[in-house]
Fold:
Amino acid sequence: MRSGIGAVLLVAKLDRLSRSVKFIATVLDAGVEFRACDMPDASRMVLHIMAAVAEGEAAAISARTRAALGAAKQRGVLLGGTARKARGLRPNLTRRVAAEGRARGQEANRTKAVSEYADVLPIIRSLRKQETSLRGIADALNRDGFTTRKGATWSAVQVQRVLRRAA
Structure:
């Protein structure tokens, strides 16, 4: 372990770091300095106690959840994907639906890019007709003060993508 770095691990709540007393003890024993925002001035003893409380609460939550799911099952409630099938419903996200969503997203991105580059596309096409290289077109756009959609400088790859999308 490196020392003298001065870094401090900052967590919002101690139980977000871990709900295991053993883990918290290991972190403390390793010399890692950390602060929990919900207890910024906590001593080692308080951290151990709070970790034990968090560990106990995690076990209680787990037990309550298991009991509630068991009770629901006893009442005949169908849980998870089985419930959807029993009601004659298909899974929410099938491969076909995912593929359709991807295709629609790609088309939306393509359309948006073409419309956002409408001002530079005629310049790019005219330079390309003059047999200017993609790098040369990028340099010309940068020289004339044009930027990409994200405000960056142009590269040959970006010019190529604009041409491909517009085709």
About this structure: The mean pLDDT is 85. The longest helix spans residues 44-74.
